[in-house]
Amino acid sequence: MTVPLFTGLDLGGTEVKVGLCSATGEVVWSDRRPSGAHLGQQAILQALAEAVDAALLEAKSRGGSVAAIGLGTPGVVDPSSGIILYPVANLGGWHGTDIVGFFRDRYQVPAVVENDANSAAWGEYATGAGKGARVLLAATVGTGIGGGAVIDGELLRGTSGGAMELGHILLERSGLPCNCGLVGCVEAYAGGWGMAAEWARRRSIEDPPTVSELIGAGLDGDELANEVLDDGARALGSGMMSALHLLNPDVVVIGGGIIDARPRHLELIEQTLRSKVLPKAVASLKVVKAQHGNRAGLIGAAMCAQKAVREGNRG
Ligand SMILES: [Zn+2]
User: Do 146 and 59 share a structural domain?
Assistant: First the structure.
């Protein structure tokens, strides 16, 4: 009997990460390749298909076979149909795509698609820092802020896939404009792009630097950069207080490039979110760093696929 392996795909604006995971979430192989996102829907589908083809070959060479495919994607995913809803920034023509149908027709194995923040949350719940949580709240701090929640063993998706938009919780009623079109969102203060823009404002520079430049400056001891990053961490902590009041989690998992690069960031977030919250919302709360690092997306997607097979959902 061949060993069942699960293909996880993490689609981003510039690249797609692909991996093969065992049923217990161990990554046995992973790779990355250009996502072709700027070239539109067909180019993205082709990049995903090539990534899956490579995974199939790898699985075979290891005496295994791919039992299911999972994809984590930016944007809102319709929980019942798996179709991508709403235009997605950086992914031209991606909305309206029936990615589950595409995979199923091409590979004849079950396929699932989740919002990328949701699949990362699921990965931490299934095999990472949130294992065993009853109510898990997960946050990813990158260019934007991703949020996800698992409650009693199920992802919280909402009626139309729009739940857990942690980055767009209101922080300031008449605050800074957000990329989403609203104002005062947590992401405008705590997301990488928001903090980079703030760093530029405080130095009266017109073109915002990149998030990596900001983090690099902070690590090099640039005082202003660290002040901006610290303020961003506190802003996320404040925003997350609202989520604690709504969800009353037992575990909060926080990850992302900024968290990996800067241990102080997580400390400040935790300090802030515990400081003004009602005691009943943080009773027995653990705040932990995500375990899966930059493989969170692909591990999460693979574990979503594993869950679908376990539950007999043929995709
Ligand atoms: Zn927003």
Answer: no
